[in-house]
Amino acid sequence: MTTEYVNIMEAARRCGVSDKTIRRWIHAQKLRAQFPQPNRCEIAISDLEPFLPGQVLGQGGESLEDRVAALERQVQALEQQVLSRPSASKAERPSVSRKRHSTTGPLPRHLVSVQAFAELHRVPSQKVLTHIDISLLPVHRGAWTDHDGLEVALAFDAKGRQAFHQLYHDLPQFVPCSRCPHALPGHV
Q1: Minimum mean pLDDT range among 76-85, 130-139, 177-186
Q2: The listed CATH number (1.20.1740.10, 1.20.1250.20, 3.40.50.720, 1.10.1660.10) that belongs to domain 5-51
Q3: CA 132, CA 139: separation in Å to the nearest integer?
Q4: pTM of the predicted model, to two decimals?
Protein backbone atom coordinates (compact mmCIF):
# COMPACT_ATOMS: atom_id res chain seq x y z
CA MET A 1 0.00 0.00 0.00
CA THR A 2 1.43 3.35 -1.04
CA THR A 3 0.88 6.55 0.83
CA GLU A 4 -0.74 9.36 -1.11
CA TYR A 5 0.61 12.89 -0.72
CA VAL A 6 -0.77 16.33 -1.51
CA ASN A 7 0.82 19.76 -1.67
CA ILE A 8 0.01 22.66 0.67
CA MET A 9 -2.65 24.14 -1.61
CA GLU A 10 -4.50 20.84 -1.95
CA ALA A 11 -4.23 20.21 1.82
CA ALA A 12 -5.73 23.66 2.44
CA ARG A 13 -8.59 22.96 0.04
CA ARG A 14 -9.37 19.61 1.65
CA CYS A 15 -9.26 21.05 5.19
CA GLY A 16 -11.25 24.15 4.29
CA VAL A 17 -8.55 26.54 5.48
CA SER A 18 -6.01 28.85 3.86
CA ASP A 19 -2.57 27.76 2.72
CA LYS A 20 -1.12 30.06 5.39
CA THR A 21 -2.97 28.08 8.06
CA ILE A 22 -1.49 24.83 6.71
CA ARG A 23 1.99 26.44 6.79
CA ARG A 24 1.40 27.56 10.42
CA TRP A 25 0.33 24.03 11.40
CA ILE A 26 3.47 22.61 9.78
CA HIS A 27 5.68 25.24 11.44
CA ALA A 28 4.05 24.55 14.84
CA GLN A 29 4.58 20.79 14.21
CA LYS A 30 0.85 20.12 14.46
CA LEU A 31 0.88 18.71 10.94
CA ARG A 32 3.64 16.47 9.57
CA ALA A 33 5.13 17.32 6.21
CA GLN A 34 8.03 16.18 4.03
CA PHE A 35 10.26 18.36 1.89
CA PRO A 36 11.70 16.07 -0.83
CA GLN A 37 13.06 19.07 -2.75
CA PRO A 38 13.59 22.72 -1.88
CA ASN A 39 10.28 24.60 -2.24
CA ARG A 40 8.37 21.29 -2.49
CA CYS A 41 6.21 20.22 0.43
CA GLU A 42 4.32 16.94 0.63
CA ILE A 43 1.70 16.07 3.22
CA ALA A 44 0.35 12.56 3.65
CA ILE A 45 -3.41 12.44 3.20
CA SER A 46 -3.63 10.26 6.31
CA ASP A 47 -1.99 13.08 8.32
CA LEU A 48 -4.81 15.43 7.27
CA GLU A 49 -7.55 13.28 8.91
CA PRO A 50 -7.69 15.21 12.25
CA PHE A 51 -7.84 18.52 10.36
CA LEU A 52 -10.68 17.70 8.00
CA PRO A 53 -14.00 19.54 8.45
CA GLY A 54 -16.10 17.94 11.18
CA GLN A 55 -13.02 17.09 13.27
CA VAL A 56 -11.89 18.95 16.40
CA LEU A 57 -8.16 19.61 16.65
CA GLY A 58 -6.39 17.84 19.46
CA GLN A 59 -9.19 15.30 20.02
CA GLY A 60 -7.48 12.30 18.50
CA GLY A 61 -9.65 12.19 15.40
CA GLU A 62 -12.93 12.09 17.32
CA SER A 63 -15.67 13.65 15.23
CA LEU A 64 -17.35 16.89 16.25
CA GLU A 65 -20.71 15.12 16.45
CA ASP A 66 -19.27 12.54 18.89
CA ARG A 67 -17.79 15.32 21.06
CA VAL A 68 -21.13 17.21 21.11
CA ALA A 69 -23.00 14.03 22.07
CA ALA A 70 -20.52 13.33 24.89
CA LEU A 71 -20.86 16.90 26.17
CA GLU A 72 -24.66 16.65 26.06
CA ARG A 73 -24.49 13.48 28.16
CA GLN A 74 -22.25 15.27 30.68
CA VAL A 75 -24.69 18.18 30.90
CA GLN A 76 -27.61 15.80 31.47
CA ALA A 77 -25.70 14.01 34.24
CA LEU A 78 -24.88 17.33 35.92
CA GLU A 79 -28.50 18.47 35.65
CA GLN A 80 -29.59 15.23 37.34
CA GLN A 81 -27.07 15.81 40.14
CA VAL A 82 -28.41 19.32 40.70
CA LEU A 83 -32.03 18.15 40.69
CA SER A 84 -31.35 15.26 43.09
CA ARG A 85 -29.38 17.45 45.50
CA PRO A 86 -31.39 18.37 48.60
CA SER A 87 -31.96 22.09 48.85
CA ALA A 88 -30.37 23.77 51.84
CA SER A 89 -32.77 24.97 54.51
CA LYS A 90 -32.55 28.53 55.79
CA ALA A 91 -30.79 27.29 58.90
CA GLU A 92 -28.00 25.72 56.81
CA ARG A 93 -27.46 28.73 54.57
CA PRO A 94 -24.72 31.10 55.65
CA SER A 95 -26.11 34.38 56.85
CA VAL A 96 -25.00 37.41 54.94
CA SER A 97 -25.60 40.71 56.60
CA ARG A 98 -26.51 42.87 53.68
CA LYS A 99 -28.31 46.13 53.85
CA ARG A 100 -31.44 45.86 51.80
CA HIS A 101 -32.67 48.94 50.04
CA SER A 102 -36.13 49.61 48.81
CA THR A 103 -36.82 48.88 45.15
CA THR A 104 -39.68 51.38 44.98
CA GLY A 105 -40.28 54.94 46.13
CA PRO A 106 -37.62 57.64 46.21
CA LEU A 107 -34.16 56.72 44.88
CA PRO A 108 -31.96 55.81 47.89
CA ARG A 109 -29.12 58.27 48.53
CA HIS A 110 -26.37 55.72 47.89
CA LEU A 111 -27.71 55.01 44.38
CA VAL A 112 -27.54 57.12 41.24
CA SER A 113 -29.54 56.78 38.04
CA VAL A 114 -27.64 54.93 35.30
CA GLN A 115 -29.01 57.29 32.66
CA ALA A 116 -28.06 60.43 34.60
CA PHE A 117 -24.61 59.04 35.37
CA ALA A 118 -24.01 58.15 31.70
CA GLU A 119 -25.16 61.63 30.58
CA LEU A 120 -22.93 63.31 33.20
CA HIS A 121 -19.89 61.48 31.78
CA ARG A 122 -20.99 61.80 28.11
CA VAL A 123 -21.12 58.04 27.55
CA PRO A 124 -23.93 56.90 25.19
CA SER A 125 -26.76 55.33 27.20
CA GLN A 126 -27.19 52.51 24.67
CA LYS A 127 -23.55 51.46 25.13
CA VAL A 128 -24.03 51.42 28.91
CA LEU A 129 -27.26 49.40 28.64
CA THR A 130 -25.55 46.88 26.38
CA HIS A 131 -22.75 46.44 28.91
CA ILE A 132 -25.30 46.05 31.71
CA ASP A 133 -27.12 43.37 29.67
CA ILE A 134 -23.91 41.35 29.32
CA SER A 135 -23.13 41.82 33.04
CA LEU A 136 -20.07 44.05 32.63
CA LEU A 137 -21.61 46.66 34.92
CA PRO A 138 -23.27 45.84 38.27
CA VAL A 139 -26.62 47.60 38.71
CA HIS A 140 -29.61 47.67 41.02
CA ARG A 141 -33.04 47.33 39.47
CA GLY A 142 -36.16 48.96 40.82
CA ALA A 143 -38.94 51.48 40.28
CA TRP A 144 -37.69 54.62 41.96
CA THR A 145 -38.23 58.32 41.48
CA ASP A 146 -35.27 60.71 41.53
CA HIS A 147 -35.27 64.21 43.08
CA ASP A 148 -36.53 65.67 39.77
CA GLY A 149 -39.50 63.30 39.72
CA LEU A 150 -38.09 61.17 36.87
CA GLU A 151 -38.55 57.40 36.96
CA VAL A 152 -35.40 55.37 37.57
CA ALA A 153 -35.31 51.65 36.75
CA LEU A 154 -31.54 51.08 36.81
CA ALA A 155 -29.13 52.57 39.34
CA PHE A 156 -25.44 52.33 40.24
CA ASP A 157 -24.11 51.98 43.74
CA ALA A 158 -20.46 52.76 44.58
CA LYS A 159 -19.27 49.49 43.04
CA GLY A 160 -21.20 50.18 39.83
CA ARG A 161 -19.87 53.73 39.56
CA GLN A 162 -16.32 52.48 39.99
CA ALA A 163 -16.83 49.78 37.33
CA PHE A 164 -18.35 52.42 35.02
CA HIS A 165 -15.26 54.60 35.42
CA GLN A 166 -12.88 51.69 34.81
CA LEU A 167 -14.77 50.65 31.69
CA TYR A 168 -15.24 54.05 30.03
CA HIS A 169 -12.58 56.49 31.30
CA ASP A 170 -10.36 55.88 28.25
CA LEU A 171 -13.11 56.71 25.72
CA PRO A 172 -12.46 59.96 23.80
CA GLN A 173 -15.91 61.35 24.63
CA PHE A 174 -15.65 60.53 28.38
CA VAL A 175 -15.91 63.63 30.59
CA PRO A 176 -14.73 63.09 34.16
CA CYS A 177 -16.69 64.63 37.00
CA SER A 178 -15.29 66.15 40.19
CA ARG A 179 -15.51 62.77 41.99
CA CYS A 180 -13.89 60.55 39.36
CA PRO A 181 -12.50 57.86 39.57
CA HIS A 182 -15.30 56.98 42.03
CA ALA A 183 -12.99 54.88 44.15
CA LEU A 184 -14.60 55.80 47.47
CA PRO A 185 -17.95 54.29 48.49
CA GLY A 186 -20.88 56.68 48.56
CA HIS A 187 -19.49 59.21 46.07
CA VAL A 188 -21.46 60.22 43.02
Answers
A1: 177-186
A2: 1.10.1660.10
A3: 7
A4: 0.45
